Amino acid sequence: MLNAIAELAARLIWLLRTLPNAVFAGLAWGLVLLGIWQILAAGRDTVRRSQAMHQIPCAGCQFFTNDHRLKCPVHPQAAMTAEAVNCSDFEQAVF
């Protein structure tokens, strides 16, 4: 009887020693995977934003002034924004 209690106590002590290690290892791997997930999500969002920005035709328009004060005299509020993607006044600049 005493031997069974000692064995049960030994198993309980072993469980209490190994359980925190497993929990902290699981938390550490969870944080690593979360970090990788965030990096991949940021990369995906960067690609989406750059694809949308490359759709803006303002830099190739003849009305584009390349001046930070007035980028476009025709549509000053929409110049170099997502609103300018389908600009009805866009005319290809002739160089």
Secondary-structure blueprint of this entry?
Blueprint (H helix, E strand, L loop, with lengths): L1 H52 L42
Strand content: under 5%
- Structural category is mainly alpha
SSE string, helices as H and strands as E: H
Instruction: Please state the CA-atom Rg, rounded to the nearest Å.
Output: 31 Å
List the domain count as a whole number: 2
Number of strands: 0
Backbone shape: rod-shaped
Percent helix? 40-55%
How many angstroms does the end-to-end distance come to?
98 Å
Contiguous uncertain segments of 5+ residues? none
Determine the number of helices (DSSP H or I, runs of at least 4 residues).
1
- What summary fits the major beta sheet? none
Which whole number gives the mean pLDDT?
A: 89
Descriptive overview:
With 95 residues, the protein is mostly helical. It folds into 2 domains: 1-54; 56-95, no CATH class. The protein has one helix at residues 2-53. The longest helix has 52 residues, at 2-53. The radius of gyration is 31 Å and the shape is rod-shaped. The termini are far apart. The model has no long low-confidence stretch (mean pLDDT 89).
Keyphrases for this structure?
mainly alpha; 2 domains; 95 residues; single chain; rod-shaped
